Amino acid sequence: MLNKNNNEYSNNASVCLSPIIRKLQVFNDFIPFSNSNLFESQELTESRQKMDLFSSFTWKERSLKRSHENNEKAILDFFPVLQWLPKYNCKEYIWGDVMSGLIIGIILVPQAIAYSLLAGLKPIYSLYTSFFANIIYFLMGTSRHVSVGIFSLLSLMVGQVVDREFAICIAVLVTAKELGDKYKHKLRIPLPTELVVIVIATLVSHYMKLKEVYASSVSGEIPTGFIPPKMPSFHLMQRVAADALPLAIVGFAFTVSLSEMFAKKYAYTVKANQEMFAIGFCNIIPAFFHCFATSAALAKTLVKTSTGCQTQVSSVVSAVVVLLVLLFFAPLFYNLQKCVLACIIIVSLRGALRKFKDIPQRYRLDKVDALVWCVTMLSSALVSTEMGLLVGAIFSVFCIIGRTQCPHAALLGQIGNSVFYEDDEEYKDLLPVPKIKIFRFEAPLYYANKDFFLKCLHNRTGLNPALEVAKRKKSRRKRQQNLDNVLGRKEMSLCLVAEDGDFHTIIIDCSSIPFLDTAGVSALKETFKDYQELEISIHLACCNPSVISSLEKGGYFESADKDMHELLFHSISSAVQFVREKEITTDDSVV
């Protein structure tokens, strides 16, 4: 018995321990011990220690490798130039990049000096800004064609200084610009009109001594080289923070929109987040080198693409041109008249001034859009650029809210014998659906327009359920007071039903309702309940998933399976077919 019990105990023990033994053996952590295999156990222990050491080393190596790969990917994402520059096709791209870079550099110098007047700063600072912005965007930008540098709108937002004495010079510059636009198709490269005018005006000013004789304003001395970097004045941040925010928003929005526009045109992709970093560092790093705000510029980008630009190597070429001016040619602009720079600014606004010709067409296309354009333009011109942008954005939001408050609503009719239904006010010869009203509301249904929705529904169907219910209750009380004849009550009831009973179903076309809020769901529930008291059923058709989800969460369907099947339809035709089949079933049951 003892042996038997011992055997049973040992068997039970082995059974109990076997799952643990198998689990431990998987990890090589369980080694049976006995005096007979002591030496073998020591060897296994040493082998296991070596394997643990090797596996630990392998795990650390893999971890370091993954960390290295993640760091490498982060660096490549942060500096896209490291991805595309090693793959640069020199034979195919270099000529277009060099030509576009030279032309942009030649255009950039006079524009940078001119736009310094708008910013109220010395010309050397605008040259610094152009140089550093091109280099930084070359390293961090994802667009192949965008030209980053001085932008007239941002310069105007920084400061507004334009002299008035430019009558003669602007006539010359406008004439040259118009000639350049007229004959540009005959030129192999764009004519740098600004540079030609600046060179001629500088020579005339120098040899005729206009500054000494007439005391005219000149650009003055532009130092060569770079001013030593300096930390920005952090105590000024509180004073400029309110102005810096619209500058940052406008610069980022303009850069991203230009990048996406040209990326779509030339079939490649840009990363908006990386563009934010790129334009951000184009403003942060140059701040230590006496630079001001910068962003992408539309005019220079258009010139860049039209002259064969393929990659941002052209930005490096433009930066080299600006660098040569900074190091060697800057003193030559000493006698440059400020009125010439003012003319460059005014002439560069020709494209913006030509937008006034678009107002009639814009008004015919969309009156509200034309009104937003005029309000934004007037507020920017009469108050300030920042306030104009803010007023334009707020006014646009109010216009959108106003449009959704009073949207178009209509009853639909059937197009012949087809399954399509359209607005009976917009189309002729539509067939009305017997005993069914099909109503369309062309806006989101939310708190601001729920009352307008109910008003339109009542007016289009010709029946206000709340008033009709009150009318019938009043009539019923009157009948109970004056009539005791049951037959008379039935006849009166039938007369009332016949008076307003030209339809028994309303189908609401929800195809133009993008979303519902709580108030919108409540309005639909109220509509369903009010018409149900008059024995008029409400069905919804063409609801998108967002609307269906809002209806479910808002408790519009009492029992989901049954009510959704009877009240919700994928199309108007399926809802009409359901109602007609229900009519036939009802008539058969009555018979």
TrEMBL record:
TM spans (from-to): 93-118, 187-208, 244-263, 275-299, 319-349, 370-398
Cell location: Membrane
Gene3D superfamilies cross-referenced by the UniProt entry: STAS domain
Pfam families xrefs: STAS, Sulfate_transp
GO cellular component entries: membrane
Entry's Gene Ontology molecular function annotations: secondary active sulfate transmembrane transporter activity
Main location: membrane
Coiled-coil annotated residue ranges, if any: none
Keywords annotated in UniProt: Membrane, Transmembrane, Transmembrane helix
Membrane topology annotation: Multi-pass membrane protein
Domain STAS positions: 426-579
NCBIfam families: sulP
Descriptive protein name: Solute carrier family 26 member 1
Taxonomic source organism: Naja naja
